[in-house]
Known about the structure:
The chain is α+β, with helices and mostly antiparallel strands and about 290 residues long. It folds into three domains: about 10-70 and about 205-235, Pseudouridine synthase, CATH 3.30.2350; about 70-205, Pseudouridine synthase (2-Layer Sandwich); about 240-290, Archaeosine Trna-guanine Transglycosylase, Chain: A, domain 4 (Roll), CATH 2.30.130.10. The protein has helices at about 25-35, 130-135, 180-190, 215-220, 225-230, 245-255, and strands at about 10-15, 40, 50-55, 70-80, 80-85, 90-95, 115, 125, 130, 145-160, 165-175, 195-205, 205-210, 215, 230-235, 240, 260, 265-270, 275-285, 285-290.
Amino acid sequence: xxxxxxxxxxxxxxxxxxxxxxxxxxxxxxxxxxxxxxxxxxxxxxxxxxxxxxxxxxxxxxxxxxxxxxxxxxxxxxxxxxxxxxxxxxxxxxxxxxxxxxxxxxxxxxxxxxxxxxxxxxxxxxxxxxxxxxxxxxxxxxxxxxxxxxxxxxxxxxxxxxxxxxxxxxxxxxxxxxxxxxxxxxxxxxxxxxxxxxxxxxxxxxxxxxxxxxxxxxxxxxxxxxxxxxxxxxxxxxxxxxxxxxxxxxxxxxxxxxxxxxxxxxxxxxxxxxxxxxxxxxxxxxxxxxxxxx
Length: 294
């Protein structure tokens, strides 16, 4: 059954995705609820829960501007066990030991900053035109090249109250970081094994868990008017300044021409007729419209 009305405004929803469903299920639900195309800004594994930003309508064109945003996670790593997927959803096998809490003090600082990280084989990484998880499920042997990621902070929160072999961590990192790989590598530094057994994303750039919509609310099929209360305007989530333009400059810029400006090189928000129009790029004193949303 189709919805009778479409959402009138475009922007972003921050959804609190529950564990156990794929990110595309959230996107598909919002597509049906809003009546317009949607796309998520950074997937979460089925095991993971928490902040999933979803662009609504033309806001989904801005995906590339969110690749480098800082993220925060609360993760649980279970030690003394290994798996093919590097998390608790895979085939588990006992291996290694469970370290004492004090053992982490000398190890965690070595992971702060820019580090090289090998992605999990069970991931969406492209390998000769195939996804890594497709090859891994088919039993194909392959290797993934290390990639540079940035870890801003890792804080040991202590042992899980329910599981004696599991520790909780707060992690702040840049885009593209695999927390499953971090579990593997921290354990390796302690000469043991570990898998990621729980993951909660509490922040993804501008979007926070406190301001996210519970997925349970979306499952109640709220009316458009109710949904719009949670919609975040597109320009609000972009950390760029506004490029001031005269009417003549606006006309040239919107017609695809470069215009001379005094602003420093970088990205800027641009407006037309009082509404957010898109993003301009300034380089060597010249500005051009880079991404148009109208």
